[in-house]
Prior knowledge:
- By secondary structure, the protein is α/β, with parallel strands linked by helices.
- Helix content is 31%, strand content 22%.
- It has helices at 54-62, 70-76, 81-98, 102-105, 125-134, 151-160, 176-188, 241-244, 247-259, 273-282, and strands spanning 2-18, 21-34, 39-44, 118-120, 140-144, 165-169, 191-195, 215-217, 236-239, 263-266, 288-289, 307-308, 311-312.
Amino acid sequence: MQVEVSRDVFRLAQVFTISRGSRTEAKVLTVRVSDGTHQGWGECVPYARYDETLDSVEAEIAALPAEFTRDSLMDLLPAGAARNAVDCALWDLEAKRARKRAWELAGLPVPGPEITAYTLSLDTPEKMQAQAAANAHRPLLKIKLGTPDDMPRLEAVRAGAPDAKIIVDANEGWSAAVYADLAPHLMRLGVALVEQPLPAGEDDALIGMERPVPVCADESCHDRSSLPALKGKYDVVNIKLDKTGGLTEALALREAALAEGYRVMVGCMVGSSLAMAPATLLAQGAMVTDLDGPLLLAEDRDNPLIFDDAGVHPPKADLWG
Length: 321
């Protein structure tokens, strides 16, 4: 088994800001796995929130033994960006070997397009209202919030896009008091979902708290081992390949979460169409699909995913799977 890792940088269409900071480009790792005849590839986005860097993730991949399988990979690498890129590359490799699509190998129905959220970056209320107005034609908008002064932003976005469905992502930026104060207003303004309102280490405060709007675990949910700690706090889990460590665990997490009564959101880091491609399989029938990474880029991979009025379409074989 030959494994090659390269670094790629994709310029963003505009500055992207969340409660933790801003960026102007997406820095990703591309992994290619070859058996000498066929080659598969995958992409990951190392995330500082989880103490990942391009260097640390590349080192994890470089430490893999000469021979491994998708099953053994689960024990060789922890859940996270490194395992994600390798796991997805192996799915692509297996599909090419078998001359089948990845969803056939996974025993899934033929996937179709799914409506995806479009993310509005954190900014002043005036600029967020302008962003909302410019994207008011989109059926689902996601607002990045996470400060103590978010109410004017929320009101501004609703004014800019009065008919759009809205979900909110606080990125762990609120306290329990701020969230409790905002919750009735989220409902009043027609917010359909609030994502990770409190820091992952402080979310016990959600136990017993009224949740008039469904609350989704993001930073609090990585893989199946996260599920026991979510009880009584969350209604929805956000499954991201860079958190689960690839499609293999993501499919297992989706099954386990649904069995425990959670609804599912499928999200992403800011990456290219290659990073989103495996997640389109995961997103089939999800409560919320949030795979807008390529829409935030000024440039993308060759043979990119198609986004249209029907949503984000599954990849063609010349991209992945």
